[in-house]
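Hi V.,

You were right to ask for the full record rather than a summary. Here it is.
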Amino acid sequence: MKITPELITFFSSMTPFIEMKLAIPLGMEMGLSATSTFLFAVSGTILPAALTLALISPVTEYIRSKSKYLDTFFEKLFQKTRKQHTKKFNRYGALFLILFVAIPLPGSGASAGTIIAFLFGIDYWKGISLISIGTIIAGILLTAGFGSIFALLNLFT
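Predicted structure:
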């Protein structure tokens, strides 16, 4: 059974914190069109973010209910994070989350955006909408950027 470039692109974009930064150049290098690469990479990035955002709260609550130590750890983590960043987050909120996901730097992306949305208690549908918008913007930037790089490299070969 042969795994197609579309599936490789889709599943490689599910890699946490690397996501489309890996999938888009990989898909383009395997000969997919920019449009196909974009669609499979964006879909593969949004799917685990949506699942993680849906499951992270109930899983955390379950863990906290079973361990006093972890309950204390999470409570301190949430309080410290919210205390240090709530003012900035309330000021820039949605725009911050979109830009954080959209700017393709190491440590940014849908995985990290999901954690931020959870830590700040953003509603699921609002969070997944903002993460999706950021992911689409990142996909456009990465597809255009790698498309240009590959075009330039082809000029010299």
